[in-house]
Write a structure and sequence with these properties.
globular; mainly alpha; 53% helix; single chain; 194 residues
Length: 194
């Protein structure tokens, strides 16, 4: 049953992962000036945050919302440590993690990776579960990169469908950015003998 609390929790998770992917692969206007406008676009432009939410919710239990809560709890530790950390109130309504600067979002990952927060404060299933914390913390970066550099954005309007229902509607922008020619049965490569 969908209610206001579920909708708010889902919106919180979406905004948290929007902030996360924006820190990992931000827009790069200076690269666009130097290498062409195609280099301007970042992970938010590719819907990478949707990929992360979908992927995290396909673990053995849905993990997108608890992971967003865990990131907020660790973000609160940074805010307390900084003492007078002030984010605009409009930012805080989307969550503490989303209100942090990109560099502080990475500091949140370090706090979690080093167990520098109280594990008992974390939401279920992370509470007192350091193995899961380490696993998910490392998966977050991996998922952001996979979502950005895979064919995900090329699925267009079918990207949220079940995998067997997705259709590649266009060539992903990230493939153009890195010069990837697309899938093939094989590419010729110069191989050296040792």
């Amino acid at each position: 049953m969908i209610n206001d609390q579920n909708i708010n929790s889902l919106l919180h998770a979406q905004n948290t992962f929007r902030a996360f992917v924006d820190a990992v692969v931000p827009r790069t206007p200076r690269l666009a000036v130097e290498y062409g406008k195609i280099q301007f676009f970042g992970a938010l432009d590719q819907g990478t945050d949707e990929y992360m939410v979908l992927s995290l919710n396909h673990y053995y239990i849905p993990l997108a919302e608890p992971t967003a809560d865990m990131l907020d709890i660790a973000a609160e530790q940074i805010m307390l440590y900084e003492g007078d950390y002030r984010a605009p109130a409009s930012f805080l309504r989307w969550g503490k993690f989303a209100s942090l600067s990109p560099i502080d979002r990475f500091r949140v990952l370090l706090l979690l990776d080093e167990f520098a927060i109280y594990l008992v404060d974390l939401p279920t299933p992370f509470k007192d579960n350091p193995g899961l914390i380490v696993s998910i913390t490392s998966d977050l970066m991996r998922l952001a990169m996979m979502g950005y550099y895979s064919e995900w954005s090329g699925y267009g309007s079918t990207r949220l469908e079940e995998p067997n229902q997705r259709k590649l509607e266009f060539f992903p922008l990230s493939w153009k950015q890195v010069g990837y020619p697309g899938p093939s049965l094989g590419y010729r490569a110069l191989r050296e003998l040792f």
